[in-house]
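Form 12-C: Joint structure prediction
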Amino acid sequence: MLEKKISSAVIKRLPRYYRYLSELLDKGIDRISSQELSQQMNVTASQIRQDFNNFGGFGQQGYGYNVQILKNEIGKILGLDRQYQVVILGAGNLGQALANYAGFSKRGFRICGIFDVDPQKIGKTVGALRVSDMSELAGFVRENAVDIAALTLPRAKAPEVAGTLMELGVRAFWNFAATDLDLPETVAVENVHLAESLMRLSYNIANIPHE
Amino acid sequence: MLEKKISSAVIKRLPRYYRYLSELLDKGIDRISSQELSQQMNVTASQIRQDFNNFGGFGQQGYGYNVQILKNEIGKILGLDRQYQVVILGAGNLGQALANYAGFSKRGFRICGIFDVDPQKIGKTVGALRVSDMSELAGFVRENAVDIAALTLPRAKAPEVAGTLMELGVRAFWNFAATDLDLPETVAVENVHLAESLMRLSYNIANIPHE
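Section 2 - Result
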């Protein structure tokens, strides 16, 4: 656990650093300067050095950064040095897309269950999982030490299901429902509001520089 | 087109205002004060007034805001007062989820085509569309005045497909591939990096206040 409070702007950049460092390792690159990283990521080198200084540097004068060490350290800060048990609520296309995405388990996010209320979906196979009846959720969460619930539910259902999961001890929500969950500060929430993302895009279309 | 440059922090909040105002209208509420909106949205009333002042106010002393007018004005700023033709590249679970989401067409985003290279997917029905062969993309884009391309492609394929679409005149990309597209400033890009979102969640799990 870190002593120092890190700004949310820095935190927002860390996953992107992590992704780039992973790509460098995949290409067999094990050492990089802040200048090189800067060019690839389209962030200034001084920004990179400042960001990394928040966590004690990791760099060596004249050598640059060791990609593996840097990736590991950023991974630790992001909490990627442990496993998470994830359940998906809602087995529609989006729930299935999340269940089938191999990249999550690689980073320690293990999808252990997927639930729906629709009899047409219950019992079907999604990736390596069988879609379970929502009525089995409470027992499942108690037995499986679930860390994260991904909510791919209709807007009207999400707050109630989140409340139930919270009572069962779930402390983190990955919310795809088009509503804000009104949950206490002791719960972590990350929203993915797709309709809002699309509106930002249409704003940008209306405001791109002219050629 | 706006004369004044609006900060990206304000722009980021507009889609959320738009969503709340839509919900108010659905509930039959046609008038609201900045105080009431503040309580519901968990933003300070002075923040709301400041944000709306960027666009000339919209409020009336002692009356508050007319929800419909405010929603329309924000909609105009966001470019939601027109129709967009959208194609989806990649007919996997995520592409299908986007194609099936009714909320997009309601806001003027008309999904007019979905493409894939996989013979198992080509010809299948997704929502009201038939999955087309990627080889038909160029002709389709030329005939249909496509505005936006949603990329739900593997990381390795996304930059090439985006480049092709740009040459065909597409000027906006909704990018779900886990890579940054290196496109000129005359193109609008909105990224949805799901793996990065999940990393922010795991960071927050490690850093939530203790009960």
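Section 3 - Comments
Chain B touches chain A through 62 residues (CB under 8 Å). Chain B has a mean pLDDT of 91.
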